[in-house]
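Below is how a single chain appears once it has passed through the pipeline. First comes the sequence as given, then the structure the pipeline wrote out for it. We keep one example in the README because the format questions we get most often are answered faster by looking than by reading.
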Amino acid sequence: MNIKYTTHFLSKLEDIFSESDYMLRYEKGNFHSGFCLLKDTKIAIVNKYFPLEGKINCLIEILRAIEPDVSRLTEKNRILYLEITQTELPI
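Resulting structure:
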């Protein structure tokens, strides 16, 4: 999968969260990895001061760490989610 660092791709990733049972929030904070994952309450918090590339990388990393209910996703988002979880990030 070729990751595009655009606002449109960021919107696609945010759509996956909106259809899943996880809530995505952008907040300021000093977490070192760029995000904080509260698994018990199913909230993912991303540092709002991160650049676009950092936000996209954080969302991809979060999607790989959680297991959203794939049956709730639309077909298009399900395909994107499966591509994300099966592809290695470039270093």
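The first strand starts at residue 23 and ends at 27.

See the next section for the split statistics.
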